[in-house]
Amino acid sequence: MNAVAATVEAVADAAGRHVRALMTSLEQRLAELAADHGEVLARHGGDTIAAGGKRLRPLVVFVAAGGIPGDGGRALVRAAAAVELVHSATLVHDDILDAADLRRGRPTVVASAGRAMATATGDLLFSRAFAELARNERRDEVRALSVASTALARGELLQRAEAFDVGVTLERYLRRCELKTAALFQAACELGALEGGADETRVGELAAFGRRIGLAFQLLDDVLDVSGPPGRTGKRRGADLLDGTVTLPLILARERSDDVAAFDLREIGGPAEAEALCDAIEATGAAEDARRLALEMVNEASATLPPLPTAQLHALHLIADGVVDRYA
Amino acid sequence: MNAVAATVEAVADAAGRHVRALMTSLEQRLAELAADHGEVLARHGGDTIAAGGKRLRPLVVFVAAGGIPGDGGRALVRAAAAVELVHSATLVHDDILDAADLRRGRPTVVASAGRAMATATGDLLFSRAFAELARNERRDEVRALSVASTALARGELLQRAEAFDVGVTLERYLRRCELKTAALFQAACELGALEGGADETRVGELAAFGRRIGLAFQLLDDVLDVSGPPGRTGKRRGADLLDGTVTLPLILARERSDDVAAFDLREIGGPAEAEALCDAIEATGAAEDARRLALEMVNEASATLPPLPTAQLHALHLIADGVVDRYA
């Protein structure tokens, strides 16, 4: 079990039995959605949903709700499924752009069925997400998800537009992380809070928590790309650098080392050179400082949580800690 | 002015001055949405929206509404914009898969910015569509658009899954056309009818009209691919055949000619051979019969319209005729 999966387990324990019941319902609903596309043609969409990630975002939805709403949680489960579907859609499309062969240990849609099927599969998952959420008949929920979904696409556009541009500022980098990662964590919190019957103030407070841990999540992802260790991340260091993605460790390191600052990402010849650049970045202490910034964000996220029932608060703290523990 | 643009003009004249006002508002709203993504990174999404098609689907939304609703038509314009955004999103993604260089006489996003930017741009347009429609705060509208958007993706998946499979049945072909084209015309009618205050029965009747003309639209598109003439369509005949897309003219021709039936689409060496196959298909009368089937659908669509105000009915008939006139 990896660190995120362990977090999901610990949180489910802490939040109470109802979260386990909801997670079970979520899997059932996702399986139904997969079966609903049972025609051969939609197999890849079904596979992608069924293959299962760690369901971290749905977990956030459930914990933010703070309990099982009066309808037995059916609407809450649909909201969580919608968030997971949007997340899955972006993964399928990202895998096309990265020409990735494996995801969660299985062949990616693009690897097994080609770019055309993968593009359409991602579109299908996006559409299913909104179809699923529309069943809740809540305009505020559709709005929250569409804002997040727009942000994801804008973040992706920004990343591609800024590729190989080592002059990217810290501010611009953080904006990109907010768009491509934090927005969906924020929406997960909002959707959970809305279904849990939270008032506007409480929804806003939980949304801020989601945004902060989402931002920290992305920062730590970027640190892991530089620092590994590969034994834990399952991939070689420097993959982002090879793609030309300028992340926080590089931004900080460029301020501290003329050698790193002089480096042109376009000239990286292959994985070994990318790893050498990772070493140079780490030598400046930039990766460690980036990690520290992420930890501060997570602490801030936990510290600014409003008064909530003890079990819910504990579960939210565990989620925040889990974002950090991926690094341990 | 091409045939569809002429239809848009004629319909706007017939439906009354309010439709022209709505079309102007639509362009303003689309321009605002484009400007809203004014950062360099989102330029392509903005370009795609602003570049402008013939806005046939928004026109259908407006005519189905039958007038300007009490809010001055703001919600109606948002619904029309959402339909156009979903349509644009699918075009951007289709152009990636087809590696198309030009669309509406301008470079495609994939041609000018690459596959990565085009994938993200399409995702952005999808997301913006739902964000725009969510502002109407109507669950029935979000449901209608998400059903259509899901259908589009499924239709695309089906087309890719069935590529080069000459054994595709008529039933399966029609199902694919319903998904990839008719569903969005149906949604356009539903959204217009809902904003126009139609009751459930009337919404259903207009939805059926939309589905029928959408189906006919796709059938005629497929006939045009075989019959051209290139001088009107602006592209060489047989492009679908080159892509391995099995359409109605081929399905019918295979029943009538052993030579056509024996043809393996994978063995088409290039455009000249594809054109030769088009000639063989036409020689069986299959293209003409496919066109006749489409005309019957359009007539059926017009004949089964419910009693409606004269100007609205006239405009709907013009839209139906316009679908056919693309062939003339």
Strand order within the widest beta sheet of chain A: 1-2
Number of strands of chain A: 2
Low-confidence stretches of chain A: none
Order of secondary-structure elements of chain A: HHHHHEEHHHHHHHHHHH
How large is the count of helical segments of chain A?
16
Give the overall pLDDT of chain A as a whole number: 88
Find the biggest chain interface.
A-B, 48 and 48 residues
Report the biggest beta sheet of chain A as strand number plus sense, adding barrel if it closes.
2 strands, antiparallel
Rg of chain A computed from alpha carbons, rounded to a whole number of angstroms: 20 Å
Which structural class should the secondary elements of chain A be placed in? Answer: mainly alpha
Distance between the termini of chain A: 14 Å
Summary keywords:
16 helices; homodimer; about 325 residues; mainly alpha; about 75% helix; two-stranded antiparallel ribbon
